[in-house]
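Hi everyone, sorry if this is the wrong subforum. Our group has a chain we'd like a structural model of before ordering constructs, and none of us has done structure prediction before. Sequence below.
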Amino acid sequence: MADPIKKEDKAYTYGEYRTWPAEERWELIDGVAYDMSPGAWPSSPDHFRVVGRPGPAPKRIHQEILMALAKRIAIFLENKPCKVYPAPFDVLLPALGEEADDDVTTVVQPDISVICDKSKLTESGCTGAPDWIIDPGNEYIHIYLLQDDGEFPEEPLIRIRRDGNAASTVLPGFTVELNELFHFE
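Answer:
Right subforum, don't worry. Here is the predicted structure as tokens:
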């Protein structure tokens, strides 16, 4: 898969990001804006989308898997301190010295975020890394766990194919058979 389309070469902040059209999906990584709308991901070098125009929504199967998994997690978390949030949900990752939300230059929208520390939750989303982020693909699920140093690994800690089982160390007792999630056609 090709890299997502970038907004013009300039450093952006969350304050600017919040003024962009709601129908567009962007993430900021160190001030660089990446268009995360599915149509922004070129399938070949000669295929691209006009920057600033919203692309199509994620594929139906992706959304069905996302919602089925988020629902199972939400049911498991009833009467527990952790909360689950499906995208779009802003996760602000402030760098040293970025005190005000509007100054933050890294903002992501994981497909599913689980947050156990309520002090990270704000009106806008979450400030600081979620405890667990999940990326459902079409044939697998990537699970990223927050490390002791407060960072997520570049590669998923766990990549589970559709015929496997997912269990969580963050949510002891939570398991799901992925073939139950991938039955949509």
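For your construct planning: The helical segments are 14-17, 60-77, 178-181. Residues 1-57 form one domain.
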